[in-house]
Write a structure and sequence with these properties.
heterodimer, A: alpha/beta, Rossmann fold, five-stranded parallel beta sheet, two-stranded antiparallel sheet, 5 helices, globular, B: mainly alpha, 10 helices, 0% strand
Chain lengths: 152, 290
C-alpha cells in the first residue's frame, strides 16, 4: 500500500439528504469506529481532500456546488456516493427538482447503498475507494513522467 | 569548538524533521488515546507528507510557493543558529520573520478564509511576541550575554532563577504549538469552522512544506524549554529532555481539555502573563542582583 492510500483525507458534502447518512458519516469519526485508524482526516477544504463523500441526491441547485468541489480537489481523487439517494436519487428520484444520483454530475468511483448507509458500510466503501485512489496515483505519476520526457 | 557548532547545526537540519515527525505522530496517538480512540499509526505524519508530495501541483499564484519556501528556509536557519549556540535575539527575530513570511503567503491569495486565518494568526503573534522577548531578556540578564552558549557554559541552571519566565514561556508554547484553547490561526484537528485557517490555500507540496516547517519550529521551541535546565553537565541535558517530553504531553492534555477561545482572551491572557511573570521575574532578578 502506498502513502497515498495510507493518508486519505476526506471532504463530506450533503446534497439534499434527510441528514441520516451525514450522521452515519460523522459516527465513523467517533471512538467506536475511529476512521483515523486508517489515517483518514475529515477536512473541510477541497484542496486538501483526496476522497469526496457525497450524501443525498443531486438537485438543480447543488449540482454546481458539487461540480466546483470536485474541480477544486487535486488529482488523484476518488468520489464515493454514500446512501441510496446519492447512488440513484432514492425516494426523491421522481421529485421535480431532483436530477438523480451523484453520477449525473461527476464521475463516481464507489457506490455505498443503504438508507441510511451503516458506518461499517461507509468505512468499507472508503477502503474500496483507496484501491482506486492508488491506481489513479499510479496513472498521475506515469503522466508526469511522460511530461518530463523520462523513458518509460 | 568550531567543529562542534558546525556538527550541531548539521544535526539539527537533518534530525529536527525526523524528531518533529515522531513528535507529531506521538501527539496524534496520545490525543486519540485521551479521546478513547485507537488513533493513527505512529508514522502517520510521514505518510501524510509523502502523500502531499505525490499530489498534483497547484498554486493560486506564482509567489505563494516562494514565500512558503522562504519561511521554511528562515526556520531552518533560525534553528541551526540556536543549536549552534548563536545569538538568541537573532533567533527570536528570525523566528518572527519566518512566521510573517508564512502569513504573507496566506495573504497573497484572495481567499477570505485564508485572510481571516492569517489575521487571527497576527493577533496571536501580537499575543506571544512580548513573552518571547522577555524570555530572551531574562536569559540575557541571567547569563550576561545573548549567546545560547553563554547560558549553557554558565555552569548554573537558569530554571530556579527564571521560574516565572519559564512558566510564561510554556504558556505561549500553547499558542506556538497551535493547540487549543489558542488554535485560532489554524489547527491540526477536525475543527472545521475556520476550514483550515491560513492553510486554506496551501495544497500539495506547499502544504507539505508548511508541515515540515511546523516540525522544525516545534523542535526549536522545545530547545528553548530545555535551555532552562542546562548547566553544562550531562544531567542537565537529560533533565532538559525529560522536561521537554512532559511539557509536550501536558500541552496535548490542555489541547484535549479546552475549547477554542476568542482572540481577545488570547491577547489579554498572554499579555497579562508577560507583564506579571515576565517583568516580575526580571524585576526580581534585578532586585536580588543575580
Amino acid at each position: 500500500m502506498s502513502n497515498t492510500a495510507k493518508s486519505p483525507w476526506l471532504i463530506h458534502y450533503d446534497g439534499s439528504s434527510c441528514n441520516g447518512c451525514d450522521i452515519e458519516v460523522l459516527a465513523c469519526l467517533t471512538p467506536l469506529y475511529d476512521i483515523e485508524r486508517f489515517g483518514i482526516i475529515n477536512t473541510g477544504n477541497p484542496k486538501h481532500a483526496d476522497v469526496f463523500l457525497v450524501t443525498g441526491s443531486v438537485n438543480e441547485k447543488n449540482a454546481p456546488v458539487i461540480r466546483q468541489i470536485y474541480e477544486e480537489m487535486l488529482e488523484p481523487k476518488v468520489v464515493i456516493a454514500v446512501g441510496i439517494c446519492a447512488t440513484s436519487g432514492g425516494v426523491f428520484r421522481r421529485c421535480y427538482n431532483v436530477m438523480g444520483g451523484t453520477d449525473k454530475v461527476i464521475p463516481v468511483d464507489v457506490y455505498v447503498p443503504g438508507c441510511a448507509a451503516r458506518p461499517e458500510a461507509i468505512i468499507d466503501g472508503v477502503v474500496k475507494g483507496l484501491e482506486i485512489l492508488e491506481r489513479k496515483r499510479e496513472a498521475v505519476r506515469m503522466s508526469r513522467k511522460k511530461v518530463r520526457g523520462v523513458p518509460q | 569548538m568550531e567543529w562542534i557548532r558546525i556538527a550541531s547545526m548539521i544535526c539539527f537540519v537533518i534530525l529536527a524533521p525526523i524528531l518533529g515527525c515522531m513528535l507529531a505522530g506521538a501527539d496524534r496517538i496520545i490525543s486519540a488515546r485521551m479521546q478513547r480512540r485507537k488513533g493513527p499509526p505512529f508514522l502517520q505524519p510521514y505518510y501524510d507528507i509523502r502523500k502531499l508530495l505525490d499530489k498534483e501541483k497547484s498554486s493560486v499564484n506564482s509567489v505563494q510557493d516562494f514565500y512558503v519556501f522562504c519561511s521554511l528556509l528562515f526556520m531552518v536557519i533560525t534553528g541551526a543558529l540556536f543549536f549552534a549556540g548563536g545569538n538568541m535575539l537573532l533567533v527570536v527575530f528570525m523566528l518572527t520573520l519566518s512566521s510573517v513570511l508564512l502569513l504573507v503567503a496566506a495573504f497573497s491569495s484572495n481567499s477570505p478564509y485564508a485572510h481571516i486565518g492569517a489575521e487571527r494568526e497576527l493577533y496571536l503573534m501580537m499575543s506571544y511576541e512580548p513573552m518571547l522577548l522577555f524570555t530572551v531578556i531574562g536569559l540575557y540578564i541571567f547569563a550576561g550575554g545573548f549567546g545560547v552558549m553563554d547560558v549553557v557554559e554558565g555552569g548554573r541552571m537558569p530554571f530556579p532563577y527564571l521560574i516565572g519566565i519559564f512558566i510564561g514561556f510554556t504558556f505561549i508554547l500553547t499558542i506556538k504549538f497551535r493547540k487549543s484553547p489558542f488554535d485560532l490561526g489554524t489547527s491540526h484537528h477536525a475543527h472545521q469552522e475556520l476550514v483550515k485557517g491560513f492553510n486554506v490555500e496551501f495544497s500539495g507540496r506547499t502544504l507539505a512544506m508548511v508541515e515540515i516547517l511546523h516540525w522544525y519550529e516545534n523542535i526549536l521551541l522545545l530547545g528553548f524549554v530545555a535551555l532552562f535546565f542546562l548547566n553544562g553537565t550531562l544531567w542537565g541535558y537529560v533533565l532538559g529532555v525529560i522536561i521537554c517530553i512532559s511539557v509536550y504531553i501536558s500541552e496535548v492534555l490542555i489541547d484535549n481539555s479546552f475549547a477554542r477561545m476568542k482572540w481577545q482572551v488570547a491577547l489579554k491572557s498572554a499579555w497579562a502573563v508577560a507583564l506579571i511573570l515576565g517583568i516580575g521575574n526580571i524585576a526580581v532578578l534585578f532586585a536580588t542582583g543575580v
